[in-house]
Amino acid sequence: QVQVVESGGGLVQPGGSLRLSCAASGLTLSRYAMSWHRQAPGKERELVAAITSGGSPNYADSVKGRFTISRDNAKKQVFLQMNSLKPEDTAVYYCNAKHIYFHDDYWGQGTQVTVSS
Predict the structure, then answer these.
(1) Residue 6: its pLDDT value, please?
(2) How do 77-82 and 67-72 pair as beta strands?
(3) Exposed, middle or buried by CB within 10 Å (0-12, 13-18, 19+), for 38?
(4) Rounded to whole angstroms, how far apart are CA atoms 4 and 106?
(5) How far is it, in rounded angstroms, from Cα 32 to Cα 29?
(6) pLDDT of 52-64, one tens digit each?
């Protein structure tokens, strides 16, 4: 059974940093493109950062230069390093795993990130 579990969220002051982790089980991570999404209250879920199975990242314009996505296929983990956090980064952050060939698509339950003084 496939599971995707996020961790690392919390309350941080503006300008601070957090590192989110996504642990996947029941799948071969190297066969999945991974991504982080977020959803703020009253807003639609949006893509924050993605990383291909080969390790190439891309980012939403709003987080470029502040966030870094990375992956460790052997440990079946994906990370999102978030620096220079702003109040508008406040949201529930979700990890997604999408198979590179098939339609398998898995979401975690999310982790809350709150940026506030």
Answers:
(1) 98
(2) antiparallel
(3) buried
(4) 7
(5) 5
(6) 999 999 999 999 9
From first to last of its 117 residues, what are the pLDDT tens digits of the chain? 999 999 999 999 999 999 999 999 999 999 999 999 999 999 999 999 999 999 999 999 999 999 999 999 999 999 999 999 999 999 999 999 999 999 999 999 999 999 999
111, 6 in Cβ contact below 8 A? yes
- Contact yes or no for 69/57 (Cβ under 8 A): yes
50 and 63 Cβ atoms separated by less than 8 Å? no
DSSP string computed for 10-69: EEE-TT--EEEEEEEESS-GGGEEEEEEEE-TTS--EEEEEE-TT--EEE-TTTTTTEEE
Q: 17-34 in b/e burial notation, b at 16+ Cβ within 10 A?
A: ebebbbbbeebebeebbb
